[in-house]
Structure formats: C-alpha cells, structure tokens
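Researcher: Hi, I'm a grad student and pretty new to this. My advisor asked me to get structures for two proteins we've been looking at. I'm not sure of the right format, so I'll just paste the first sequence and hope you can take it from there.
Model: That works fine. Here's the first sequence with its structure tokens right after it:
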Amino acid sequence: MTEPTLEVTSKTEDTPANSSKEPKQTRYRNIPKKWQLAMAVMTACSIFLAINQIFNLGFFIGYVMLDSRYMYLITGIMLCMVFVTFPANKRSLDYIPWYDCAIMIALTVVFSYFALNAERIVLEAWEYAAPDIGVFLATITWIIVLEAGRRAGGWPVFSIVLIFSLYPTFAASLPNVIAALSIPLGDVAIFHVLGEESLFGIPMRVFVQLVFGFLIFGVSLQFTGGGPFFINLAFALLGHLRGGPAKVSIFSSGLMGSMSGGPISNVLTTGPLSIPAMRRIGFTKEYASGVEACASTGGVFMPPIMGATAFVMASFLNISYVSVAIAAIVPSVLYFFGLFMQIDAYAAKNDLKGLPKEELPKLRSVFKDGWYFIAVFVSLIWMLVYLQREAVAPFYATALLLIINQFTKHRLSFDKVMQLIAQMGRLLAELAGILAAIGLIIGGLAVTGIAGTIANDLVYLAGENVVVLLIMGALTSFILGIGMTVTAAYIFLAIVLVPALTNSGINPLASHMFVMYWGMLSFITPPVALAAFAAASVANVAPMRAGFEAMRLGAIIYFVPFFFVFNPALLLQGSIIENLQAFTTAIFGVAIVSGALQGYMIGVGDLGSGIKGLVIKILVGMSGLMLALPAGGLFGFSQIALLAVAVGLLVSGIVARKVLISSQ
C-alpha cells in the first residue's frame, strides 16, 4: 500500500477528478478532436455572454442586452453543447452522428430568430398570441428541449417533464381533483418557449444569472489543485487523530462538495485518496465507502456555496442567497458533527489509531504551497456575505485564482487550460439540459393554475395533520430524488409540495429546506444510492453493502429536517436565546444518537451486543432524539419535559449497561 503522504502529495500535480481511477462513463461522449475545438468555442461564447450581461459591459451594441435576447442566445449555445456532450445511445459514444448535427443546426436557426426578434416577442406578447412562424419554431424547440433533458438527466427526467409539459393539452379529460381547462397544443408551445414562466422561468434564469459563475469557479478550483490542497490540509490537521483518515474525508469532501454541488463527482475526486487511507488503519471497505458517500453528499447543503440549489431556493423565496446560506449553517453542522461523532465512536470501539505524524503532510508546508486557495475562498465569502454581490463574486474569485495560480508551480499549461474549458463545457451542458427541461414542468403547472389545487388536495389528504403531510412530503421528495439531481427534484417539489406545507402553517424557508434535504437523501439510501455506489466502485466493494452502511452513517439527516420544521430556531429564525437553546440541545442529542448508532458512547464505553445490548442502544438513542427534538414550534413541547424524558432514558440505558456488565 502506498503511503498516504506520498499519494496525497503527488496528487497536487495532477489534474483533479483522478480520471485514471474513475469507472468508465457511458453517459458522456468521447468527443472527437475536430469537435473539441467547437465545444471550446461554444463554452467560451457562453462565458463571454454571461460576463457581458452580468457585469453590464455593453459589448456588441454599446448598451446592456435585453434579458430575453441574452436568454435566447446563451440557452441556444448551451443546448447545442448538450448534443455534443451526450450521445443519444451507446452506439454513438465516439462520434457525432448526422442527426445530432441536424439538431444543432435547427437550434442555431431557431434561437437566432428568437434573439433577432426579442423586442417584438416581448412587445407583441407572443407567449399568448404568436404568428404561425412563432408557433412552429416554439414547437420544434419544445421537442428538442425534451430530448436534451433525456440526454442530460435520463429517462426519469424525460418522462416527468413530458407528462407535465403536455398536461395543459389534456387537463380537461382528467378526474376533477387534477382537472383544468385544456389548451391547444400550439398555445402551450408558445407559452413554454416564448414566455418567462416555463423554459426561461426561475431554473434557467437563476442558472445563467447566478449559478453560472459558481460552476466556473468550482471547476477552476479543481484544475488549479484546490482538491488536493484541501485533502492535504485535512490530513495535516486531522490525520493523526483517532480514526483520522475518516475525519479527513469529512473535512475535505464537505468542502469540495460545497463548491461542486455534485455528490458523485465529489466522491470520485476525494475518494481515491481518503478511502485507501481509511482502509490502511483498519476501517472496513463498506465503512470507508459509507463515510466518503455521506461526506460528499453532505457538502451539497453546506455553506457557503451549497451548489446550485441554494440560489434557486433564494429566488423562489425572494430572499438573498446569504439568508439561505445562514439558515443552512446549523443543519449542516449537525449532520457533519453526527458523522464525526459516529466515526470517533467506531474508532474508539475498534481501537483504530490515526496515521503516524511523520507520514503526514506538514501544516506549514501545506499552507506555503496553497495559501492562495484560502485567500481566494475568504475573498469569495467576503464578497458574498459583506458586499452581497452574488452574481459577480465567483467571476472575481475565479480571475484572482487563475492569476495567482500562474505564478505557482501548479500553473496551467495550454493542454490543461483546454481540459479546464472542456470540463466547464460538460458541466454547463449537463445543468442547462436538465434545468431547461425542468422549466417546462413549471410552465405546465403555471399555465393551468393547477399548482395551488394540488397543494390544497395534499392538505386535504393528510387530514390537515402536519406530521402526516411531512411524511408524505418526505417520501415524495425521496422518490423524486432517485431519478433526478438534487436541484431538479427540489424545483419540482418547490412548485407542487411546498405550497401545501406552507398552507399548513410551516415556515416557508423550513418547507423549502425540508424538500431539498429529503430529495438529497436518495444519494445515500438504497436501492439507488448513487453516491454510495460511486464510493463502492473506488473501494471495490458490493454497492448495496456500501449503500446500507452510508444509510446507517447518515441516519441523523433523516431526523434533522423534521427538527427544523418543528422549530425554525434550528434555521436561526428565532431570537438569539431560542437559536442558542435549540442548537445546544440538538448538539448533545446528536452526539448521543451517534453513540447509540455505533454501539459505543464516549465516556461510557461499549453499549453491549445481543438483545440486551440492542435494548440499551434503543434507550440511549431515544434519549438523544428527545434531547435533540426542539421544544416549542409545531409540537409545543416544554423543554423541561423533553429534557426530563431524555435524561431518564439516558440514565436507564447507562444503568442497564452496568447491570449487563456485572451479570457477565
């Protein structure tokens, strides 16, 4: 086994993603060389258009471009990139067939026409009454967007989008509970493509105005060595502790996941370094895979960046991104603290030491080598929180990073710059294809006005019982999360389910956070635990075994969403005293629950095995849940009563343990 120090250090010179260890991808096309240049040009044009519009530079015409013209131009380019990046089937993995070229030509013609006629489309309200040419081109666009969604998001996305985008055409034929007035196909097409509530609704607007820059920053950070730097930093800080490599995984994967927003890509970036190190000190393959999967998934909701979903949520709620990030602080702390305590308990129970200090990177040399990553990260947070410049902050941070990097030993060669642009293009294409398709769902519900009816029906089905409604929402979110990205699942649920939760008296921000968290849980929960399966491929272990281990390790996150819904103080929505009280009891509760899940409690010891041990674990675990459960809020519990129950259960568990030991 290669020593962790040598493996970690050597990776600082590599391009990230550890491509040599990635399983072979069949979703992405192996782009022919002659098309790589075209892809690079389209990526550069997209970035140029975004910078021009976001910074109000007024290139081309001397004044700021009309928003709709900008949307047509950049969306048309990125949809073309979808058909270069994603093959229609496995037979065209190594070449671009004629029909993809035909689709790209059609996209160029259609979106050029829309861009040239942008003012006319707005002034003459084509979304309600367009000329025949507008109806024809909108229908073609609708079909192409459906196919782009299938290629970028898979058949689940295609199926859901197809049904909901066509829904207005057959709404009158459905049962009364979901019926609405039917609309002619042509009218639906122009509403989808030429209006501002469907294809160019919240998902795409947020993407091209806010998320775009953060994707570029995340890719640039990886290609300049940010991933290896954070891993080295984690090893220097935590590698020597009990179960150190697993704690390293939490730290490094959490940070990288926050910036990339992609659990699977995060696993494949940090997993090849952290999983072998965990295995070396005695963690099982299953446990190591579970740790990496949970840490990478948790990064999606960890401030300050939180991937794309936080920006979409801020737009839905009409609040600042900073407000969303602040609200996510306590839940993310509880999640990662629960992981940390479980790992610590597991390591203590199995007497797993850390790595020898002499084999670990030195903190001083790590900072000397990559200090500018911290500087750029701090500057980004300063621009986000203090200046509140969400749209331009990532562009400034990216420029600062790339400039400084060129004066270090990690400077990018021409080949690496081309790889960087290619990776940017792939990510832009993937997200654009999915979000463009998901926008059609919003359009289908908006044009019929059915979203409010569905919300009222859900409340009625739940019998106006908030707990039942939350369980229904959790299951729906989880099922949708199986077939969609976190962002796509969240957008759908924010339209259909969140209104039902808010109509039941739940805090709007808590409602949105609830569906986002549960949509994300499918990444660590069998039968389709994609993050765990990716980690299993790195650890060379059975995917389902890794999935169940990840589910057990991430168990606390199944409860955290209910906690902050019952009392928004855990989202820092209460007074200082309320927030502090809720956070304090939750931290202690999570620590106790973590001990129960691992069968070892710090300060108490092994909780035993067999039936008697199981009873003790249940008592201890229930005490932790009672302690973590917020008082007040929807439950209206007295904190004193909860504390009394928690202490009683905990004492009962400890006494039972002593009795068990004495009887042996």
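Researcher: Oh nice, that was easy. Here's the second one.
Model: And its structure:
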Amino acid sequence: MARSSTKKSARRSLLALIVVILGLGGLVGGLTVWGGGSTTPRLGLDLEGGTELVLQPVLVGTEKINEGQVNRAVDIIRQRIDANGVSEAEIATQGGQNIVVSIPGSPSPEQLDAIRKPSQLRFRAVYVQALDTNATQVNPGGGATGTPTPSGTATTPAPGKPSATGTATPSTSATAQNGVVPDALRAATTPATPTGTATGTATAKPTTPAPAATTAPAAPTQAQTEAAVKAQAVKGLTGIGWAQAKADEAATKVAKQYSALNCSTPGAVDKIVDDPDQPIATCGDDRTTKYVLGPSEINGSEIADASSGYQPGPNGQPTSIVEVALSFKDSGKAKFAAVTKRLYGLQSEPPLDQFAVVLDKSVITAPQARAVISDGRASITGSFTIDSAKQLAEQLKFGALPISFALQTQDNITPQLGEEQLRIGLLAGFVGLLLVVVYSLFQYRALGFVTVASLAVASIITYLAVTVLGTTHGFRLTMAGVTGLIVAIGVTADSFIVYFERIRDEVRDGRPLVAAVETGWKRARRTIIAADAVNFIAAGVLYFLASSNVRGFAFTLGLTTLIDLAVVMLFTHPTVQLLARTKFFGGGHKWSGLDPQRLGAKETLRYRGRGQFGSAGAQRPPATVGSARVAEGKAQA
C-alpha cells in the first residue's frame, strides 16, 4: 500500500507540472493572439534599442529650478514608467536641469504622452462648466453642429464627472452635454435638457419638433456669454474671500479667455497661462468641455496615495461600484476639509459644488462634494470602468511634478550591445549548461539524465514565464537579466547535487534504494529550501535597493529560484521515486549511478520477506531460512 501511494503521489506531482507548463503555454498563445503579446521575451534597452526623450523645465520669468526639484521629478517619472512592472528604462539628468528618459522598444503614443507630459496637479473650484460651442461636434445624424443632439435613450456619465464622498455614496453627474451653466449660456433652441438621476445616469427627454416655419430664438451673443461667465466667476471668487473690485477685474479677464477658447484647436490648452493664484479658463481632457476654475487651493504634492478598485460595502465585501480612493498627507487634510465644507454648502448652486482636478492645465475629473471630508480620505465614484479608474488613480498618484517640463527632443536610439553581445552571452550560458550536463553524467552516470531533464523543464518554464511577464507587466530582458538566468543554472544544479548526494549517502549506509530515496529527500528538502530562501532574500534586497540594471538581474534570479524549487518538488523528486522502482536503478546497475558496490555500501543483512535474507549493501544472492539452519547445524556438529 505504501509503495502504491508513493507512485500515485509521484504521478500527481508530474501531472501538476504538466498542467502548469500547458497553462503557461496557453497563456502565451492567448496573449499573442488577443492581448498584443509575443511568443518571444521582450528585450531591454541595451539589446533592442528604443526611444530617448529629453525633457526641459518650463520656467517663467526669473524662476529657477533647483536640484531637489529635478530629483523629485526624476523619481515621479520613474514611478510612472514602473507603475506596471519592471520596464528597464533609464532616467538621468542632463546639465542639472534637463531630464533624459530612455525607453526600450517602441512605446505606444499613450505611454510616451504619459511620460513627457509636463504635469502640475492642482485642485480648483469649478465656477462654469459647459459644452464648448466653439468646437465642431458630430451629431448622431452625421452633420456638424455647434451643439449636441440629445437622444431619447439613457446616456452614461463621463468618468470625469463623479462625486467625492467620505463614504460609499453613489454619484449624480453631468456629462459634457448637460454641464450646469448660467442661463445666458444656453441657446433658446436647445431641444432637451438632460437631467441627472440618483443612479448617476443622464436621461434626455426629447421634445416635439417645432414646425418648419417657426424661427428659433437667436443664441446668446459673445457679450452675453462673457457677462454670464463674469457673474458666475465673481460669485465664486467672492465666496472664497476676494474683495469685490479684485474679483470683478479677474472675472472680466477670465470671461474673455473663456469666450475665445476653442478646446478642439490643437495646442489650445498649451497656450493657457497656469497661474495658481488666479482663475483660469480651460478644457476637459475630452477637449469638448470648457471650464472656468477658481485659484488653486490644493497642490498634487499633498496627495499621499491613490488607488482604484471595487468599493467595499457595509459588510466589507466588494460591490459593483468602481471607485478611486484618494488620501491626503497631513499637510493637505485641513485644506481638503475646508474646501469640501465650503463646496458641500453649495449643493443647491451647481456647478459651484464641484472641484476640478487639473493635470497639465486640463481637467481630468470634476467631482461634486457630497460630504465634508475631515480625515483626508475621499472616494471618487462615477461611471468608471476598472481601466479608467486605474488611469485616474495613476494620474492622481504620479501626476504631480514639482515643475512643468516640455519635450525638447525625441530620438530613436540603437542597441548599446546589439545582437553580437547577446549571442556571446547566450553562448556563455550554453557552455555553462554543457559543463553542468557533462559533470552530471560523469558523476552520476544514468542518474545525470534526470539533471538534464530537470534543467530542460526549468528552462521551458522560465522562457514561458519571462514571455508572459513581458506582455502583462512590461518586463524586458537585459544583459543583466540574462546574467541572472545563467547564474540560475548553477543554483538549479546545486539543488540536484544536494538531493542526489543525500540519496547516495543513504545507499552507503546500507538502505535499499526505495528507502534511500525517501529518507534522502526528507533530509535534502530542508537544505534545498534553506538555500533557495537565502537566494530569494538576496534577490529581493537587490531588487528593492539597487538601480534599474541590477534590478533586472535580481528579478530573474528571484524568478528562477522559485522555478528551481517548483521543478525539484514537482519533477526531480517524483521522477527519482519512479526510477527507484525500476530494475535498472533499483537493482543497483553499475551505470545507474547508484551501484552500492561502487559507492562502498556497508554489508548489512536485512530480512527481505518470505523467509529470505540478503545483503543490502553488496546485493548478494539471498540465503533462505532452510540453508541458514543447515549451516547452523553443521557448526554445532
């Protein structure tokens, strides 16, 4: 029964390993077909080349940049790049001011834009929010018009218009088409006014079309629009304590800027002067909505953390509501509490109850204040998807650079090492692998083929894992990473040597091979786990404390250490268990590597069952009980 149980356990382990390999292979294939992946690992900057960006600080007047600001900017840009895993990008300073970013491969336009975007994150109160009638819109009928054509079906609010609460609260939000604006900004011919509902959706109620002969009232003139915007801005500015004269002057200026702003014009936002102490007219990141915003009240540097996910319910279980959880540092808690207290009291006067998060002079979200948040922990909800919530969380967390940067140059760079150096590195790995194989076959004979097979299995799993990580987490293989893989050959071979030597020690002590395998495994397993744990800890320390190149080495070393442990557990030991029950290995063939005579096993007489005794060490022919008694009788005579 014990032997049968051992066989079943060994076969289950091998089956589990096969499932793991097939699963990784299927994942590689699926990501290649549907996920934009590849069947080969992604290479790093030194092996493949990539793109080099030079970012230059944008300085106004006599403004200067110091070393601390540059270093802070480098750290934030590195966080943006590494937000989805190891990407092996290189970031350095140039001349004490410029920042040079080298990205491996061919980054997508979205990735390039996220890195080079000169970002200042500010929180500003919303005074006016409306559809940009200067921009050309495409209505459902296909014609171009300056105003939207609402439909009779429910529309989903834009993710940028959620509510901010201190607790889980559903949001009511306005889309770009139904932003709350002064009456003077609305055309009298608007066919329907969408209304927000408690579930965060907007429903447009169509009206009966007017007769063809009816002449619609004229849209508000530019003067009327500016007057309405000015009135709203003055109301907001005096609400934060500005004197009437100062508010009138600033409101007049921002109203003219609002009237002249065309969000659909390329580069329109870049021309906006972002003075944190003055109100501004700007656009949403959808480039269809215009805003008038108050002075900056909180900077992005006050944000402690931002994350996305499903909002927990009262019982702690995740709900279907996607949220962005935002927390502020101690220095920002009091400011945020004061802002939400003021805005919460303006719920009857929308959009004055909204605050906009402005990144690079564009509004990325403008939630309503639905509670007074005194602990600095807010929940932004709306019609988010997991991806859009993740994007907003990353913008909030990594968007606040201490100073704005503009893209100076963008160039393609060639590989620093190239294919020749990669071939040399792979050749070195092949030579090392060949030496391990030769040593294993010389030292362990046929048992050495188990080492060869184990290394092959480990190589397959490593290749598949690196390929999957390249697609899912942006991992790129550099020469430092290749070095880690080469070092892993020795780490993996060391585990086999420890195990095989333990088995041979048990055979030398006179144990039968089946018992020697099990006893040797129990002793070797502790040593293997301890050694791999030390390697993994060392890899972890290197990964978190070293620079990017060394991190690539540490990552591959840690990954292959885990793979080594899995291969020894799921392949090497089960294979040896099954081989020990074969005639070739179990009988101690001289080419098996487990020959008791060659190993110098002790001569011990053991009971073999069915009245038979035999030597466990020299594998001599067994003596029967009858012959033993005859020998004993002769001795007495």
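Researcher: Is there anything I should tell my advisor about the second?
Model: You could mention this: The chain has four domains: 2-13+431-463+475-586, 45-116, 121-137+156-187+220-400, 604-636.
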